[in-house]
Structures are given as structure tokens and as C-alpha cells.
Automatic annotation (TrEMBL), chain A:
It comes from the Bacteria. Pfam families: Peripla_BP_6. This is Branched-chain amino acid ABC transporter substrate-binding protein. Residues 44-371 form the Leucine-binding protein domain. GO terms for biological process: amino acid transport. The keyword Signal applies. InterPro entries: Leu-bd, Leu_Ile_Val-bd, Peripla_BP_I. CDD domains: PBP1_ABC_LIVBP-like. It comes from Micromonospora costi. Residues 1-33 form the signal peptide. Belongs to the leucine-binding protein family. Keywords: Amino-acid transport, Signal, Transport.
Automatic annotation (TrEMBL), chain B:
The chain crosses the membrane at residues 12-32, 39-57, 63-84, 96-115, 144-164, 193-215, 221-240, 247-265, 271-290. This is Branched-chain amino acid ABC transporter permease. One of its GO terms (biological process) is L-isoleucine import across plasma membrane. It comes from Micromonospora costi. InterPro entries: ABC_transp_permease (IPR001851), BCAA_transport_permease (IPR052157). It is a multi-pass membrane protein. GO terms for molecular function: L-isoleucine transmembrane transporter activity; L-leucine transmembrane transporter activity; L-phenylalanine transmembrane transporter activity; L-valine transmembrane transporter activity.
Amino acid sequence: MTSYLTRRLSRVALVGSAAVAAMLLSACGNGLASGGGEKSDDGPIVLGMLTPLSGSSSAIGPYMKNGAQLAVDEINGTGGVNGRKLELKVEDEACDAKSATAGANKLVTAGVKISVGGYCSSATLPTLPIFEKAGVPMLIPAANSNELVAQHKKNVFLINGTGAQQSDAALKFMKKVGATKVALMDDNTSYSKDIADTTAKLLAGSPALAGRESVTAGESDYSANVNAILKGQPDFIYWTGYYQEGGLIIRQLRQAGYKGNIMVADGSVDQKLVDIAGPEAAAGVFATMTQTPDTIQGADKWIADYKSKFGAAPGPYSTQAYDAVRVAAEAVKQAGSTDGDAVIKALEGIDGFQLFSGPLKFTPDHTLSSGGFQILVVENGKIVLKDTLQ
Amino acid sequence: MTQLLWNGLFVGSFYALVALGYTMVYGIIRLLNFAHGDLYMLGAFVGFGVLSVAGGLATGLGFVALLIVMVISMLVTGTAGLLLERVAYRPLRGAPRLSVLITAVGASFALEYGMRLVAGPNPEVYPVRLAGDPVNLLGARITIQQASLILIAILLMAGLQWLVMGTETGRAMRAISQDPTAALYMGINVDAVIARTFFIGSALAGAAGVMAGGYYGKIDFLMGFIIGLKAFTAAVIGGIGNIKGAMLGGLTLGLLESIGTAWIGGQWRDVFAFSFLIIFLTLRPTGILGERVTERV
């Protein structure tokens, strides 16, 4: 996601790069100071997580951080891994490439053995070579752009379903509700365009593609875009961007008199989407989403544990972050060491390890063999499960 | 087509309101106040704060509540504009133009990230929303609320026009814009008039902020950035320094965007709109209504 911050910094590139340089410098400073003690083999195994704690997606950060922390505490409670405790280090990704690279450098110099973070795809992308160079395997719990897969880095594993899998699920549901003319709207960011592109490729024959539109994120008035998209007279509109613009677009589509179905992708699944659109306009809006704690059957005990520990309910990507830590621990256990190559080998060998999304087996591309996407719907102002697509 | 024109006019009236502040300040002291878009953001947040405090009382009153809140917000943003001028711009009045420009960018960042400290990074949703059933007028869907927002914008602009052309203060403003030193010799309190200009321009931006919050519903601490750029473009298209030009430029830009999106697609809209900025700057730097060649920064 190109955050507002990115755009802002480019406006005064000089000020921006100076600030980043300062951040990088301080990152190195901290890293060197704390990196010394991590070498010993009986100290804690440090897991690093990049997640948005500020910026437009900052609501997600605590969900991911707490989910991972819960897994760390559970594993430490049963004696840790290979006799060593786990330790979680969190850095702010801010959904912004500059913050993310600074954070990744900070984690690497702090002696992180495995990365279990990554939310915004465009912020995660530039961190791949940093972790690769340091020999750190990455288990990415949320970011899922096909661009991440297309890098073919051997240290990168995706715990979330990919953009292509999300498109498949979207198409499956469009056919199920009998859509005939589908229009796609994206916000021109890596994640959003990716899903729109793969979905557009699938839309041939019935349902057919009835128009594509890219909007500029960060504006308030999308009536011109809404007008343009309605010219194709679609009966199904799929928005693949984030919730802030999504909420406005849903509202403005309804104000323009559009009565057909609207569906949003997982970046828009947030209660704020309903607030911004208003409960009346948002009613009946569908969403493609991987499993959230609310929609997983039998997760009641897990949710209760989470609530009693953090005093707040889990949210999107809490379970994926939790699973990422568990998979990391399992791989270290099987590898018998924290050596990057050994852990990668162990990860590739994992078969049938139980995750929230089902048994784990990585494909040769290091993605999940099944995405686990399902369909949610807005009902009475809340986002609830509609269809598991099983 | 009617719908396109209507959409363009509606967005354009927001641009025009914000562009007025740019153009007034530029017209008088030749300063591009880059923090102007952030005063619009400040206005939206002040409105949000007042509405939240008022709670159920405001929700019951609906549109009237928004009007009252708009006036409060105009006073607050106007005062913020005064403060900004006093702290950031007045000490630099004799300094090279580039220093003032950099201060303006700094003031913009300070306002944005100051608001982030106060209100947090997440977007907020206005508790009072303007939504109504649209009526069909010549093939365009128009809501009463949209029409009343445009009406408010027109009234504010008419008020400003009267203030500048028909009052003593207005005459002083025009005198300073022609020659500040001569105006000083004629016994005009230049500092006071400039401060008043900042107050009025900022208040108009604050009004636009509350209107946007009430109509679109979502506000966040960076919302002033894009509209600031757009309003600046509108001011240049209309002829920077010229008040009627800012109104005309705002409406023109709104229409250009609306029609551009329909013709060549949304991903090209900003390219289309900002190309006009370049075209105007190269071919007609004085804008549609500009009277004289102004120095560009």
C-alpha cells in the first residue's frame, strides 16, 4: 500500500530522505547495542515482527502483535523450543516502505532468527532482500500480494492465502450469486491492483468484465469514478482496496442509485468500513476474507485465552500471526537449530501441521496449498460469516 | 452528462472554498501558504470534536447542528490561521521567499502530525451525516443536502466578495496587495490587515472542512494534503491572487476532473487535472482571470 506518508515524504524528498537516514542510523545504533548478547546458543530465540503500529492501517498492528505474543507465551509455558525460550521483537511497518525497511534492518541487527511479520504488501516487499541477505526465514502472516510470490525468494513463506487464491474465491462466489456483469475497482497499490488484475483475467464469458476503475487513495469524493464504473451497468462490483476509501465508495455507489451487489477484498474487512459507509449503505456488502477468530468454528477457547490475556478481543490476522509463530517454533524444533537454511528446509518439509486455516503443507512457491478464503457479509452493522465456500 | 456536470460543480465548490484562502494570502503577501489544506483538516476535526461533545443533542438537530458547528469551527480555524501567521510567517516577512515557503511546508507537517498526536492516526467518522433521497433534475441525481452545501459555499463566497470590494478592510487589503510600503505610508495598519486576511482565509477552509466531514463522513489527519494541492491548482488555473479567479478555477478543476474521469478513466484523472496546471503555468501563467504576471515561487 502506498500510504499517505509515502506520498507526503516524496513531496519534500529532501526532508523525507533526511528523516529516513536518521531512522536508519538510529536503527543501526540500537541494533549494535543489543545485538551482542544473542550469539549464545542457550539464550532466547528471537522472532521479529513488522506490523503497522502507526499510519492508516495501525488498527491491525495490535491484533497481530498480541496473536504472536499469545503463541510465544504458550510455547514458553511448555518449555520452549529445544530447551530455549522464544522472544518476540516488534517494529513498526507503518504500511510504508521506508518505515518497513528501517524496521527490518533494526530487527536483523537485533539478531532476529525468524521473521513472523508483514501486513501491507508494498511495505513488506522491500524487506524481503534485507531478511534474505541476513539468512532470516520469513513467515508472512498477512501480506499476500502475488508480487511477494513472484520474487521466488527461498526464505519467504506465506501463511495467508495469496491474491490469486482470493480472486478464485471471489469468482466462485460471483458465480454462486449469479452475477453476469462484474466491475472491478482498485486503488492503484500493489496489493489492490494485484487482486483486480488476477480477477479480471478470470472474468471471461460469464460473468463478464463490465469495467475497471482505479481511484486515488486519500480523497473524499469518488463520484466521478462511481459514475464511470456505473456506465458499464454492472450487477456486481468488487472493490479490492482498503477500508477507508472502500467505505466512501460504497456510500457513494448507493447514493448514485446502484442497487446491485458490492463485494470488498480482505484489506477492507474492518468495522470502520461499516462506520464510514453508514450501516444502511453497507448492509448486504460481501467480503472475501481469510478466517478471522469470529468465523472459525471451535476457536472459542482460543478467543477466551486471548481476551483474558490482553483485555481486548482478537481481530483480523490475530490467528495468522499466532500460527506464524507456531510454525516457526515447529520448524526450529525439526531443524534442531536456528540456522536459516536448516529452518527453511524444515519449513518445506512440514506436512499436516494443524493451523486455523487447516493442515499446513507449503506449495513449491511457499504459499498455502489452499487459501482458506470465505465470504463475509455486513448484517445489522456487523461483519459476519456468510459462506465458507466449502 | 448532466450528472457529470453536477458532480464536477459539487466537488469544484469545495476546491473553490479552499482555493480562496490560498489566493487571498498570495494576493496580499505573495506567500504560498502550504499549510492551508491542513487548516481545512483542522476545521473538520474541530467540527468533529464539537459534535462529539454535543452528542445526542447534535444528532437530533441534524443539518442545523452542522451549521452551528461550522460557525464555531470557522472561528477556531480562523484563530489558528492568525496564530500561524504570527508565529511562522510574520517574523519572516523580510526573508527570502524560499525561507517562507519552507516554513509553510514545516507548518503543514506540524499541523498534520500535531493533530495525529491529539486525535490518533485512525480515521474518524462524523456522528452527524448528511444523506437524503436524491431528486431527479434534468437527468442528474441531486440531494437537497448537496444543493444546500453549494448554496452555503456560494453565500460564503458572495460574503467574501462584498468584504473585499465593499468595505474599508477590503480596500486596505487591495491597497496592500498593490504596494505594501505605499499602503503603510497611507496610514494602513499592514500587520493588522494581513492578520485579518489570514483569519478570513482560514475560516473559509475550516467551513469547507466541516462541510466535507458532514457530507463524506470520514476525516483523518492527512485529509488536507490532496485537497490543498487541488485548491492550489484551482487558484493557479483561475489566476492566483484573484478572488473571482479562485472561484472560477475551483469549479473549472472540478469539471475537468469529472469529465476527464468519464472520458479517459479514473487512473488518468489526476494526470489530466494536473496537466492543466502545467499548461496554464506555461501558456497563461496569469490564469483565466489573472490581471498581471505574478512572480512564481
